[in-house]
Amino acid sequence: MEGGGMLDPETPVPDELTPIEQAQKRLGMSSIQRAASKSFAQLRALKGPVHVKWDPGTGPAAHEVPDTGEADRIRLGRFRGAMLGLAVGDALGAPLEGRERGSVPRLEDMTGGGMLHLLPGQWTDDTAQALCFAESLVQCGRFDERDQLERLVRWLTKGHLSSTGYCVGIGRTSLQALRQFMLTGEPSPGPSPSNGSLMRLAPIALAFSYDPQLAAEMSARSSLITHSDPRAVDACRYLGLLIAEAVNGAPKEELLSATSPPLLELQRVHPLHPEIAAIAAGSFKDKMESEIQAWGHVVQTLEAGLWAFHHADSFRAGCITAVNLCQDADTVGAVFGQLAGAHYGSAGDRGIPGYWQEQVALRSTIEGFGDGLAELASALKTGPTARWRAE
After folding, report:
1. Domain 72-101+123-389 superfamily per CATH
2. On the chain, which terminus has fewer CB atoms closer than 10 Å, C or N?
3. What is the pTM assigned to this prediction?
């Protein structure tokens, strides 16, 4: 969940209204959001899960990995791994959301529960927003801010691509940006250094991974839909570069090297904010767990996710380490998960455990978007209008 608290929409409005008309109708009422305490009380009153049926007309479904050679299987596994890893980290960390480190027993598996009262395998706004971006990229074949925002509004108002059937866990900055878009029809990012744009990043980096420098710039651009603080923008820029390099097979040592050629080129073209540059230089590597903070600030979240990635030798070990930092555990898990999934892939001894993949909500949908993003990246790489599609 994005730092800054959970909010959700209040009164349903007719489906035939446009998003702007829906917003205007909402804003004419007494309130567009519930207070967090009221929201939690309503969630506690729910009886059992809300089952979501995926409409095959709105996105891709996972298909069998074609036997096109070992390199292609590994590449597709990394695309799937980044998307599944984000969801798995989110679902694993959700029960520890908002808890102080050391205040609860160490978590070793998907348990569900927590302040959102989710079932095992259900995830929060981190994954739902990522799926909205993935759906937009795959269906539009390009980066389209307006289409992305419209899909986020569908998630906010109707639970589109949610693991529960309704919007769960939206943070204040994202909510305010979507409310302004619903009113005006124009993007209106907030100047908050919270982690709401970092947590959903993987689809952008994957789509443009054929050119990691472009992936970094498009990742930064994706933050500006809702979060305009330079630290949030540059955190996305740096993590986008790492995900793109990881899915292309860069070893961990190179990914996290302060002198890697891709990072040096990124810094030459667009010097990172000093707080993000310090992380890129490896400031987190020698820190003890007690020195790592994991609340909703984007700098803390990036550092915590990379710290767990640096100290782990498998997806499972790193994800357990990441979420047990507690605090904004689901988002730290999501940040770790998308990078580690791109690095380790969705299979193999060090990849995402199969039993976690089986538990995660909407698994086939998530895998399908991973496949679609891999196909999109290949098409953009070979197409004559690849650069135009990034505009």
Report:
1. ADP-ribosylation/Crystallin J1 (1.10.4080.10)
2. C
3. 0.84
